[in-house]
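Dear support,

I submitted the protein below through the web form. The confirmation email said the job was done, but the results page showed an empty box. After a refresh the structure appeared. I'm attaching both so you can tell me whether what I see now is the final result or a partial one.
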Amino acid sequence: MMKGENLKIHVVGVGGQGVILFSRIVGSAAQRSGKNVIMSEIHGMSQRGGVVESSVVIGRAFSPMIEEGAGDVLVAFEPVEAARQKRMIRKSGIIITSTNPLVPATVGIGLDIYPGVGGIIASLKEDFESVFAFDAPGIAANAGSSKIVSAVFLGALAGIRDFPLSGGILLESLLEIVPAGAAEMNTRGFKAGMEEIWRLQGL
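What the results page shows now:
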């Protein structure tokens, strides 16, 4: 997975999904592991469900910005955003995406059309070697709450073969941030995300 001296992770979703929380936890886990890490955050109209992006670069890096086609991992909390941001990832990179759409209000009032999720995923798989798509909010809900999607994606990231940050450290970093009363639920979500990625990799 590693390319050169850095691991470049691009994260995207919409406001309220936990994109920034996810990135901060990955950054904290990298620091716990003794690795250099830098991050960038781009807040769109997050209060209104707008696009939110974040980049995490782990290793010998001097800028958090990821050039198009240079990213190693794309984590997309929303499938259309996976399609929009796939340009950021190298062809041999990894895409982890939810299959659960968040349909904009403009679609509901007939001003826009939301593309079919099946077609989005098929297109991603045509263009990239490693695409892992699953219903992240559904897995989160089964673990206790649809609000712990970040925990599910963190577990999924930890479950990727040869990922350089250990699952234990990622989970520790997650539990350090979430409220104590939600620790058990987030742990279940994390483990469920990891198990789903193991299943998709045939492990």
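Response: this is the final, complete result; the empty box was a page-load delay. DSSP finds eight helices and six strands in the chain.
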